[in-house]
Amino acid sequence: MTDSRIIVAGCGVFGSVVAERLASAGHRVLAIDKRPTVGGNSASRIDPVTGIECHTYGSHIFHTSDEEVYRYLLRFTEFTPYRHHVAIRTGGRVYFMPMNLKTLCDFFGRDFTPDEAKAFLDEEIRKSGIDSPSNLEEKAVSLIGEKLYRTFIYGYTKKQWGKSPSELPESIITRLPVRLNFNTDYFNDPHQGVPLDGYDRMFRRILEHPNIELRLNTDFFDLRPEIPSSTPVVYTGMIDEFFGYRLGPLSWRSLKFEWETLDTSDFQGISVMNYGDESVPYTRIHEFKHYHPERRDVFASGRTVICREYPDAYAPGKEAYYPVNDAKNKALLAEYRKLAETCPNVVFGGRLGSYQYWDMDRAVGAALDCAADILRRGMIPAQ
Ligand SMILES: Cc1cc2nc3c(=O)[nH]c(=O)nc-3n(C[C@H](O)[C@H](O)[C@H](O)COP(=O)(O)OP(=O)(O)OC[C@H]3O[C@@H](n4cnc5c(N)ncnc54)[C@H](O)[C@@H]3O)c2cc1C
Fold first, then answer.
1. What is the pTM of this model?
2. Mean pLDDT, the chain, as a whole number?
3. Which of 357, 359, 370 to mutate to test the pocket of ligand 1 (most atoms within 8 A of CB)?
């Protein structure tokens, strides 16, 4: 099979970083992925017709406040100074998200100062009369009042989860940010951008180490019968699939992406436009050229690539995007974690292996910790 001392299954953010850290510590690593690409859900590709860099699984913007993570990635890429802004079309108007003072002024047709907006919002919340919310709808109304909830949250959330917010647990949201200033940034983190020459190049550089053998189009489950039980494995696929779904499948939400190339230089003027109305079946449209205004020729060309994002029910075989962190799935996850403890040579990691939604920086941070832990525990036999 291999004389590698450790196998890393999955070359997304988590697997790539673990593989690099272990390889740099002197271990031979076999890194596999069932896909033909590196970078997992953060993969990018150049559209052959327009030359536009497209994020294969929807917009990915790197953002972090974690200096260690940022410094680590700077060894493999520079980031552009891109700062993310998101607009939303809802009720026949366009606003910025998250809601800010301009959103409030436009929506309520007022000229608020920050203090006036705060007093107005407090009154909206007081009018809602909800003290102990029992579902997501009540929670949202208790945070921002009924009118903002109906326009900005209700339709989008219902489409995203395929259920009315009144049927969703209130624990899905802890806060709904409303900025009382004119800051239109989507993220608060000091470090933001996209890799200057794309995610694909960044991940290939991370994996380009003489101690790493990279095998794409290779499914862990095809290789598994040949792997000696003493070989350590870092597994970043789905934890329930690893155990043959023997306790039942964990629930996910999936997405469908509908791609289109258009003969226009700028379709929507922004990289992400959300759609809040329930009557529009998609939640967002991505327009990828806006991530790289510095690629002037491509940016100025008369063509653009867009992608409509439709929430979709998950079934095994589809891509799993968002874990459904309700009580039933949390209990099932706890059972799978007990099973995982019976496999001392396997480390379960990444968003699929840990059944968590993580932004990329969180996945990098977790991978750095995981690799350090593997080295500290001496999990890999000496060569
Ligand atoms: C729509 C969407 C948008 C997002 N936007 C952002 C964003 O703007 N900014 C941000 O920071 N984060 C964003 N994220 C989160 C980001 O995608 C994750 O942080 C990242 O994917 C986590 O990396 P990972 O390695 O844990 O998982 P993944 O990227 O899913 O990688 C897992 C890899 O394992 C492979 N694999 C699975 N099973 C097997 C198997 N049996 N054999 C071999 N290989 C296998 C898969 O093919 C995959 O390549 C977004 C997520 C979604 C769903």
1. 0.95
2. 95
3. 359
